[in-house]
Each structure stands twice: as structure tokens, then as C-alpha cells.
Amino acid sequence: MADITITRPEDARECYRHKALRQAGYDDGEVVMGDAIINLHADEHRKRRRLENRLFRRDTFFSYERELFPEIIEKTVRPYLDQGKADLVDFGHQLMMNLAAATAGVDRPMGTAEETFRLYAYMMNFIEAATLAFFTGDKEAKRQEIQEAMEAFDAEFLEEGIARRKELLAEFEAGNLTEEELPRDVLMILLRNQDKIPMNRESLRREIAFYLLAGAHTSATAFNRVIHNVFKWIEDHPEDIERAYNDRLFLQRATHESIRLQPSSPTAARWALEDIDLKSGIKIVKGDRVVIDLETVNRDKELFGEDAEEFNPDRELPDGAAPWGLSFGQGMHACIGQDLAIGLVFSPDETEENHLFGLVPVAVQTMFLNGCQPDPNNPPEMDDSTTRPYFGKYPVVFID
Ligand code: HEM
After folding, report:
1. Is 3-373 a domain of CATH 1.10.630.10?
2. What is the mean pLDDT of residues 133-150?
3. Of the four listed, 8, 52, 214, 287, which is most buried by Cβ atoms within 10 Å?
């Protein structure tokens, strides 16, 4: 059994789409992801995905971006604007958690800052499950801590939300509520289809915890990196300052380019269930672990040009190349939240009013439209609790 590293785009696409390659990226994170959608395979995966796809449709994304999210963003950012400063790492995670909680179906009945803070602590714990393979401390102790957090999270945040949704469902079935009055979230979809795809409480809990972390962590790290990249870009291209602070499409392109260069999940991994010969001649033997190295795949010079290693929000691409490379995967596990996270590529026959920007670009825009700049007295630092390149703190100030 060997580790096979994939570095070329066409091999990566073939692996993502190969039915005999099974998810291997989260074996260490079982405690949260055991039977969450990301870990299911074949028929089991197809059934769950088909169900959840019903929520993840363009009309839902538009209604989130236009109706649900603006208020959440305003509420989250207001205290920081009032103080005139923020730490992007904390703020990004808080904001993305608030958005991911709405999508996943995690209610906060009290609506207090204290309650949000506790949910935040749970989510940070779940994130540690997803990245446990890269954890530098005692993994077994961490796993135990996460298991306890899962149970406490269920009692505190799921119990009531499940009961509330069941009541709404009964009202709906009795004809007292319309479809539009039901919450549009993952928990609701799963509860509504228990007869077709039954899930026990532990499975429900894992799926919702996974949605919370999948939606929040990837988006929060991307958010931070985009802002950092734009700061660096305008240092070298002062003529673009105006665009950075006013042009929403520029910031969406900067998001796509940042996610290409720094994929939120830099590797994807799969177990080979049988011997496989890739079209390029690479031989994979049953039991091998295939690792798709997205950082290399996404810097392919043939696709992205000679300057593929560099950040360039004005990059021109050949037909068919996605500006974010393969950072959202492909095939059965392709990110269900991609359009929600980064919107669609702007086409000349649309207007900004009917364009889907995506929650990361919208969050980045919120920062720049409010005059966000690096804090001159407080430089950013990296997070040393993980081998992955995450910022540990990133202080910014808001200048009118
Ligand atoms: C910048 C933001 C995001 C990035 C870079 C990202 C990236 C990815 C990638 C690479 C995968 C596939 C992993 C694999 O093949 O092993 C994935 C799957 C997934 N993502 Fe995202 N994601 C983002 C945002 C979101 C959001 C906002 C949500 C939820 C609302 C979400 C939900 C999911 C789910 C549920 C899966 C599993 C799909 C399946 O197994 O069928 N993601 N994401």
C-alpha cells in the first residue's frame, strides 16, 4: 500500500470522478464526520446528497444572499465597526458561523451574545475534528474532548430545534402552514424525509455539526486570505486602491483567485477500492491512498499561465478553466455549497443587481466598503497549533 500524490489537473479530475476511489480525507475526524455526507460512498451517499440537493439550489442561494444574510452580516459586524477595529480571524469565524448556523438549522433561541459565544466554542471544537490529522498535540485526548462537545452541543442547540421543526412539520401537514413558512435549512430537510431516509439522533447530530464546520471554517479561512491578498495587491498596485474599496466584482474575482492559490482544504484523499490505471498511465493499486495535491494542481502553468504562482485578480483564463481551480472538488463529493460560498462568475449579459456574489465575496466587500486596513501597530501572526498555514490573529482598523 502506497501514497500516490496527484499533481496534474486531468489526473485530479479523473480521480475525483472515479467510483472506486472512496473518501479518505477525514478518517481521523470520525467523531464528527463518521457518517456525515462527506464520508458516505456510492448508494448511501447518492441518497443523502439527492435529499440535501433540494435545499442547495440557486433560488435558495439568492434568497439567502438577498434576504437572510444581510441582517446577519450587519448584526455581526456592527460592534466591530463601532469599536473601529477587529481581529479578522475571530470576526471571520463568527460571521461565517452565524451564516452556516442559519444554513444548517442551528437555532439560537435566546439570541444573546453569550449563547453565540458558546456555539462558537463548539464549532471551533468540531473544526479541530476535521483537521485532527494535522493536530500537533495529544490526538486521543482531543478526540474525547470533541465527543463530549458533540453531546453538549446536542442538548443545548439541537434538542429544541428538532422539537420546533417537528411541530412546524405537523402544522404543515395539517394544512395550517405553507411550504414557504417552513425553515429552509438542512435540519428541516432531514427531519422532513425521515420516512425515506431514516437517521438516528447521533447521525443527525453529526450531519448538522459537519455542516456547521464545513460552511464556516472553509469560508472563514478564505475570507481572511482574500483580505490579506488584496492588501498586498494594493501595496504593489496603488492604482487599484479605488477598485479594492469600491468595486464588488473586483473583490469577487480576488476571492476566486485567492481560493485557487490557497485552497481551504489543500489536499483531498481517497482510498482505492480496486486497482486503477489512470489515462495518463499512473497505476493505483487496491488499498493505496490517493492524495490530490490541490496547491500544485491549481498552479498548473498550462491552465493558469506562466505567473500561475502569483495572485492576480485580473487573470485571464482559457475556456473551461474555473478561476478557483479544483478548490471545490469534483465528482460525487463536489462542494454542495460552492455557489453559496463564492457565487457565480459574472457574465457580461447580467447586472450586479441580479448577480450571485457568494457569501465570502459579500463578507469581504463589507470589510472594504467600511474602509478596512491592516492595523499599523499590530501585525498579523500565524496559528502555531496546527501545521496548516492559518492566521492566528489578523488585526485591522476601519478608517472612514
Ligand atoms: C470557500 C468555501 C468553501 C470551500 C473552499 C469548500 C471546499 C469543499 C471541498 C474541496 C469539498 C470536497 C471535499 C472532497 O472531495 O473530499 C467540499 C465538500 C462539501 N462542502 Fe464545501 N467548501 C466551501 C464552503 C462550503 C459551504 C458554505 C457549505 C455549506 C453550506 C459547504 C458544504 C459542503 C458539503 C456538505 C460537502 C460534502 C459534499 C458531499 O460529500 O457530497 N461547503 N467543500
Report:
1. yes
2. 88
3. 214
